[in-house]
Amino acid sequence: MIWRTSESVLVGRFDRLADKSNVLVDSFFIGFNGNIDVILNGQNLLKKLGIRADDVTAEDKLVISSVDDLASVFTHYFKQETAAERAVVEESSWQEMLKAINEMEEKTNFIGGNAALIARTMSYSNIKIKLAVPGGPELIKQLKEYGVSVMENCKQSYDELHVIMEYGVGEEFAGHTAKRANRFIFSRDIANSQMSATNCLTDEAVSGVDVVVIAGFHMLETLPTVQQHAVINSVREKLSLHKKQTIHLELASMTNRAFLLDLFNMLAVYSHSLGLNEAELDFLSVSLGGDRVEVKDISSVKAALVLILEKAGSESSLTRVHFHCLTYHIILERKGRWKNSANSVAMGTYTAAKFACDTPTIVPSNHELRFLGTDVKPVVTEDVGVYTLHISPVLVCKQPLKTVGLGDSISATGLLYTTKT
Questions:
Q1: Residue 1 — very low, low, confident or very high, per pLDDT cuts 50/70/90?
Q2: Cα first-last separation, the chain
Q3: Residue-wise pLDDT tens digits, 284-313
Q4: Which of 282, 219, 293 is nearest to 32 (CA)?
Q5: How far apart are CA 394 and CA 328, in angstroms?
């Protein structure tokens, strides 16, 4: 008798599920943030900036005004081992950071921004994509390699840059040893922070597509409330004219509770689907009056997901939430409103496993199964009152080559395999 690991068994079952899963849609409109990610090691950048680990105080801040602020916020999230993103508000500090980055030899330029990453992931499925992002020369060039074009009226003469400070399992900094790989992101991004690409959301652009994916709203946090509301209202009003399309809102790291509640009440409840990770779910749950979320306590995750749909209301368009964390993913849906959700969540985790290790197939020895609540099945479904919950375990890559874009890959892939009823 040949003994097989849980990972090997699950890979085989995922492969068989993937072979039987059919894409149900063929066209997407995707907006609104895109940039070039400068990917580097976080500690190496801090050293280049003259920061000593012993001198850093871990502290979260809403924005970054100096190099010391960058070190404090990076250390705060390094110790929590969660992803986060902040804006640099001082031009002189941004230039100081860019100078250090340009002097670093070990760095990589890559496609960045939720919307651009979703488009890149979708390109593997050979579907039609209309991409509305601020497209600079390097971003346009890299997207072209995947067969994706930026809409003509969204192109600009320069690239917006986001700096990705990555760290790996076992890295030590400021007295903490990382048990998981993750990253911290910072930028000074004018076009995306003002969401200029929403101007490309026209009737002509949206007509004829099956799914509209909207992302990047976290970039509005630094703007005055009046400007935030103007952008959100404009997007909602334009999308309200299109009743047939599925509208999916993808969240990202936020710090302003009032802004998050505005985004939820002014846009999320008018969308059909919502995507978010553990940090975003925790912040949204508390903002909506719920409890803190701990991913190891799956009951707290379920409660927060139910709270979101309950707060949206039974008459709301929002009937689906796609949650993703390192060890498992969940789709919670209102009963009878979506097709094929079990396959949708499973294909999301399947794609995340391949993407993290940057391999065309999943090699069992390169992954580990950390969530054992599904009896080594790709997906398990259960009823939760008027909702249906689908949970899928992640085959976690032991030595990930990519952490940026994982959440976007998950949500994007899931949307290929499901439709509204």
A1: very low
A2: 46
A3: 999 999 999 999 999 999 999 999 999 999
A4: 219
A5: 5
Answer positive or negative: Cα dihedral of 130, 132, 137, 143.
Answer: negative
Is the CB of residue 279 less than 8 Å from the CB of residue 82? yes
pLDDT band, residue 3 (cuts 50/70/90): low
126's tokens: 């050979």
Q: What phi and psi values does residue 184 have, to the nearest 5 degrees?
A: -125, 140
Q: What is the 3-state secondary structure (H, E, C) of 146-182?
A: CCCCECHHHECCCCCEEEEEEECCCCEECCEECCCCE
Residue 67 vs residues 90, 96, 255, 310: alpha-carbon distances, Å = 10, 8, 20, 42
- CA–CA dist 131, 44 (Å, integer): 34
Residue at token pair 């040893």: 177
Rounded-to-integer distance, Cα 313 and Cα 304, Å: 14
Q: Cα dist. 193→55, 133, 284, 357 in Å?
A: 32, 12, 21, 31
- Residue 243: phi and psi, rounded to 5, are -90, -25
Q: Give pLDDT tens digits for 356-404.
A: 898 889 999 999 998 867 678 999 999 999 999 999 999 999 999 877 7
> Which of 37, 189, 210, 408 is the catalytic position?
408
Tokens (6 digits) for 248 = 């999916």
Task: Give the bridge partners for 64, in sequence order.
Answer: 88
Pair 351, 410: CB distance under 8 Å = yes
Distance CA 54, CA 353 (A): 36
User: What is the Cα–Cα distance from 159 to 360, expressed in whole angstroms?
Assistant: 30
Residue 408 among the catalytic residues: yes
Residue 34: pLDDT band with limits 50, 70, 90? very high
User: What CA–CA distance (Å, rounded) separates 343 from 145?
Assistant: 29
Q: Quote the CA–CA distance of 124 and 138 in Å, as a whole number.
A: 20
Q: Which of 176, 238, 234 is nearest to 212 (CA)?
A: 238
Phi, psi (5° rounding) for residue 20?
-95, -5
Q: What is the mean pLDDT of the chain?
A: 93
DSSP 195-262: TGGGGG--HHHHTT-SEEEEE-GGGGGGS-HHHHHHHHHHHHHHHTT--SSEEEEE------HHHHHH
- The widest CA-to-CA distance across the chain, in whole angstroms, is 68
